[in-house]
Write a structure and sequence with these properties.
The complex is a heterodimer of chains A (108) and B (112).
Chain A (H helix, E strand, L loop, with lengths): L3 E3 L4 E4 L4 E7 L6 E7 L6 E6 L4 E3 L2 E6 L4 E6 L8 E9 L2 E4 L3 E6 L1
Chain B lengths: L4 E3 L2 E4 L5 E6 L6 E8 L3 E9 L2 E4 L8 E7 L2 E6 L8 E8 L6 E2 L3 E5 L1
Parallel strand pairs in B: 2-11
Antiparallel strand pairs in B: 1-3, 3-8, 4-5, 4-9, 5-6, 7-8, 9-10, 9-11
Classes of the chains: A mainly beta (108), B mainly beta (112).
């Protein structure tokens, strides 16, 4: 079983749609969680951290459920520029463990 | 402020040749990571340095791969001899403590 699992997608949605990605992790001792975004042929970049109480950054909302070892990312009012691969990331002591990513395509 | 710098950005070589990838971390960052990304396997951690010391190289695929960090501002990843299955994008990343990890632009390696 992979340490971090994500649905690879792709999720193909129209502009303005709301889309949600989910992720599960296996190490219950993990302390920090993140969502990274990776554009085609580019490096991954931090989108947002994920806090236990849930957190929001504009159109993006991240949630953490420690009991279920489950992380989610919600994108509201999707834009064409949101098209990318979204990587779920778990901090396992000193190193980040990356999921394989969920691909999002936002169409006009 | 310069981010993580990697060179070369693209490398095409023939099987059996030695390949050296270079990385300059962000100044002040004490952790450096080498990753490999392929369509099949996603993003894999190869090796992690803390304060220039290799801490975890369990992700290094085999003896053909070696990495060094002679000082806080430079690291190399070497493949000798290279094989076609080594073709991938190799990312270097750096981090200060538990802060955000920043990636370099990557080196796209093609081994013919």
């Amino acid at each position: 079983r992979k340490e971090v699992e994500q649905d690879p997608g792709p999720f193909n949605v129209p502009e303005g749609a709301t889309v949600a990605f989910n992720c599960t992790y296996s190490n219950s001792a993990s302390q920090s969680f993140f969502w990274y975004r990776q554009d085609c042929r580019k490096e991954p970049k931090l989108l947002m951290s994920v806090y236990s109480s849930g957190n929001e950054d504009g159109r993006f909302t991240a949630q953490l459920n420690r009991a279920s070892q489950y992380i989610s990312l919600l994108i509201r009012d999707s834009k064409l520029s949101d098209s990318a691969t979204y990587l779920c990331v778990v901090d396992s002591s000193y190193k980040l463990i990356f999921g394989s990513g969920t691909r999002l395509l936002v169409r006009p | 402020d310069a981010g993580v710098i990697q060179s070369p950005r693209h490398e095409v070589t023939e099987m059996g040749q030695e390949v050296t990838l270079r990385c300059k971390p962000i100044s002040g960052h004490n952790s450096l990571f080498w990753y490999r990304q392929t369509m099949m396997r996603g993003l894999e951690l190869l090796i992690y340095f803390n304060n220039n010391v290799p801490i975890d190289d369990s992700g290094m695929p085999e003896d053909r791969f070696s990495a060094k960090m002679p000082n806080a501002s430079f690291s190399t990843l070497k493949i000798q001899p290279s094989e076609p299955r080594d073709s991938a994008v190799y990312f270097c990343a750096s981090r200060s403590g538990a802060d955000t990890q920043y990636f370099g632009p990557g080196t796209r390696l093609t081994v013919l």
